[in-house]
Design goal:
Protein name (chains A, B): CREG-like beta-barrel domain-containing protein
Structural class of chain A: alpha+beta
GO cellular component, one term (chains A, B): cytoplasm
Oligomer: homodimer
Largest sheet of chain A: 7 strands, mixed
Helix content of chain A: 25-40%
Largest interface: A-B, 59 and 59 residues
Number of domains of chain A: 1
Radius of gyration of chain A: 17 Å
Organism (chains A, B): Aquilegia coerulea
InterPro entries (chains A, B): CREG_beta-barrel, Split_barrel_FMN-bd
Shape of chain A: globular
CATH architecture of chain A: Roll
Order of helices and strands of chain A: EHEEEHEEHHHHEH
Strand order of the largest sheet of chain A: 4-3-2-5-6-1-7
Keywords (chains A, B): Membrane, Transmembrane, Transmembrane helix
CATH superfamily of chain A: Electron Transport, Fmn-binding Protein, Chain A
CATH topology of chain A: Pnp Oxidase, Chain A
Number of helices of chain A: 7
């Protein structure tokens, strides 16, 4: 059985204004006044978000899709989100045509917002924008990304063999395409996000 | 004190393939094989999602933003998500330049996915696309939308008076602009979503 488009893809976000070194302590919430650390914490703590791309089918309209991701082994997040997608899904197809993308995260799913509304700035929000790019297969980065993904999303690893899931949906069973990502983060956007969008506790 | 851009905005999604009548029972999860009912249930049960627009600042790149929304009073969802946004926020500014938008929801925050991965098709996902449009002030729809929003997001109602929130962040305090939405839903897209993206239990 053949599948359309098997790719390793890497999304680079250059987080130019990040002053902390790669590798964050994602076990405790940072000082909310430290936007950079809080952004890294959000990436490390969340295991899913919404990846927005430019839709081919909709003539250039924006298209958001729920995706699982990982930025590293548990408690060892590197700040770089990796995705496991397929070109059977519009998001991956869109990316191969136009690599511009944004990944949007909320603190709400983590459960640390208490009773604050998800739109309340005390409940952190983060939008990362950059380019979604294929990761080269059989490289150290591809190996790291696969390890990062499978450590947080065990179901991904067994997709090919899990016939129960195959029966539930051909989509999930066909998730053979690995879209791996790092981030080229635009500093001016990050500053804007820090000030306007990703208001932290 | 004056605020930039005070608008009532309405996003219309025409959900052409919806066979159920307006008004869903959002207290119990529908049969997962009924994609339409499950989509309505997801809209009704979630109180936040990611609204993606075409970014002005980023030259047409997609930009997703965490937003709170409501489609009606609790247990009386109408299937039409309403938003309370401000043009101090890029999403609203983008919308006034290009009204194309998508709203992306996951079943994961509802808590009914169990241990399933958010990317597992047994954990429902939904992407609605359409046009984000200003709702006319002082109309029945504006009144309904405000009621829908404030019933599920009590913090929104008191923004002007809540000086504690004002102190926490100028952004949330300045949420005076009401973006209210219904959806012009593209049926061919809905069918695609039903088959590929929004795979339900």
């Amino acid at each position: 059985m053949k599948f359309k488009g098997v790719y390793y893809i890497c999304l680079f976000f250059l987080i130019g204004s990040f002053e902390t070194s790669i590798g964050v302590d994602d076990t405790s919430k940072p000082d909310p006044l430290d936007g950079v650390a809080t952004a890294r914490w959000l990436v490390s703590q969340n295991n899913w978000g919404v990846l927005s791309t430019i839709s081919i089918e909709l003539g250039g309209a924006p298209f958001g899709n729920v995706v699982s991701f990982s930025d590293g082994l548990p408690d060892k997040g590197c700040g770089i989100p990796y995705f496991y997608l397929t070109t059977l899904d519009p998001t991956a197809r869109n990316t191969l045509k136009d690599e511009r993308a944004s990944l949007t995260l909320s603190e709400s799913p983590i459960g640390s917002c208490g009773k604050a509304d998800p739109e309340n700035p005390t409940c952190a929000k983060l939008t990362l924008t950059g380019k979604l790019t294929l990761v080269t297969e059989n490289t150290t980065e591809a190996e790291f990304a696969a390890s990062a993904l499978f450590s947080k999303h065990a179901e991904m690893k067994g997709n090919d063999q899990n016939h129960n899931i195959l029966l539930l949906s051909s989509l999930f069973a066909l998730l053979r395409t690995l879209i791996l990502s790092t981030i080229f983060y635009l500093q001016h956007l990050f500053n804007e996000i820090k000030n306007i969008i990703a208001t932290m506790k």
